[in-house]
Design goal:
single chain, alpha/beta
């Protein structure tokens, strides 16, 4: 492994930089000395914009507009996170999905200044593997089963062709299931957590699928390592935990962590052609990047609020302000790190904390004590 590129004061373009992964990479890139420009299809709200970042609104599937925006700009690095995960069939609108992911990548490559380009990082998907046998390895032939996965696969082959024929400096990073704070509420884990918190019955598949979950901080570390590496151009590299876990087990763990939940297994059918075992072989990432994931699903509650949840489930009562303060703070950390939604978590934290206090500490008897604590945990109640 050779990590020798000097990154200070380099210009980085992040396509899709306002999304979950993109915004986290943006923050880490700034800390690593990059000057960051973000392209997004939709305008980033002012309250979500990051200081020192140049935000540009343009649809990368529109070649004319994209070329006009980029023609006079110079970037040493480009990270392509453009598009969105969408498993719809071609007849249900898959043409637009394909155009966003493949045509958008084609337009991006045509529009950027290649004379100064040191690295192009393409974010691929585990969906490219389709029905391949697990653990999925980078040298397996892709078997796409949707417009989204064929678009990702097509982009991979196009970029590798450019590397072979024109020495285009590209690396393709295939991500599996990424999770962490700030994730869109429509994604799997936030949906399960909100479903459990509601106490109402919610439908899921039978949950027999084996999947690979990787924490956002680990993923951003891997992306930055790929930017720094001189030896990965032309490569496909899986960024994942490499640890399979069933969807049913994840749901049951969330239910246990939260202390309630009513999932209805088998109510939702599996997707047509869905691979029941989709988890990565990560040996190439370890060899070429010196990278491996450090966080597991098990780590989240143990780091952020496990003792609080156990405290609530046990029905223990306490009059100690110090203990209440510590438990409330752990609750805040638990909500922020495990609910994956910075905006909604404040509401949920407020609701859940009140529930915790009323049911276990008997707020009628401890009200003065709790009020005295509000200033020390005001971030929860703001």
């Amino acid at each position: 492994m050779k990590l020798s590129k000097k990154l200070n004061k380099n210009n980085l373009l992040i396509v899709g930089g306002t999304g979950f992964i993109g915004s986290n990479v943006t923050k880490k890139a700034l800390k690593n000395g990059f000057k960051v420009t973000v392209i997004s299809k939709n305008k980033c709200p002012q309250n979500k914009q990051i200081n020192c970042v140049d935000y540009i609104n343009v649809d990368i599937s529109n070649e004319k507009d994209l070329h006009h925006i980029l023609k006079d700009r110079v970037f040493e690095y480009v990270l392509n996170l453009g598009g969105y995960v969408d498993h719809k069939n071609f007849s249900e609108g898959g043409k637009e999905v394909f155009e966003t992911h493949f045509s958008g990548t084609l337009n991006l490559v045509k529009s950027i200044n290649k004379d100064t380009l040191k690295g192009f990082i393409q974010i691929g998907s585990s969906d490219e593997y389709g029905a391949n046998i697990a653990p999925q390895k980078e040298n397996q032939r892709e078997m796409p089963i949707s417009p989204y996965s064929i678009a990702k696969t097509s982009a991979t082959h196009f970029l590798q062709m450019l590397h072979r024929t024109e020495k285009f400096p590209v690396v393709i990073l295939r991500l599996f299931l990424v999770y962490g704070p700030g994730q869109d509420s429509s994604r799997f884990l936030p949906q399960i957590i909100k479903g459990c918190l509601s106490g109402k019955e919610f439908g899921t598949s039978s949950g027999e699928q084996l999947r690979d979950f990787c924490y956002i901080e680990d993923i951003t570390d891997g992306i930055l390592k790929a930017m720094k590496s001189d030896s990965v151009n032309g490569e496909i590299i899986n960024l994942a935990s490499g640890d399979p876990i069933s969807i049913r087990t994840v749901i049951e763990k969330v239910k246990t962590f939260i202390g309630k939940g009513n999932p209805k297994f088998g109510k939702i059918a599996y997707r047509v052609g869905e691979n029941m075992s989709l988890y990565a072989d990560t040996s190439r990432a370890e060899h070429l990047l010196g990278w491996s994931s450090k966080t597991t699903i098990e780590d989240i509650p143990s780091k952020y609020g496990c003792d609080l949840i156990k405290f609530r489930l046990a029905g223990t009562c306490t009059t100690s302000p110090a203990l209440i303060s510590r438990l409330l703070w752990n609750l805040y950390l638990f909500v922020r790190k495990f609910l994956f939604c910075d905006v909604d978590c404040l509401y949920v934290a407020r609701h859940y904390t009140i529930y915790f206090i009323e049911s276990d500490i008997r707020i009628s008897q401890r009200l003065s004590c709790v009020k005295n604590l509000l200033s020390s945990v005001s971030i929860v109640f703001t």
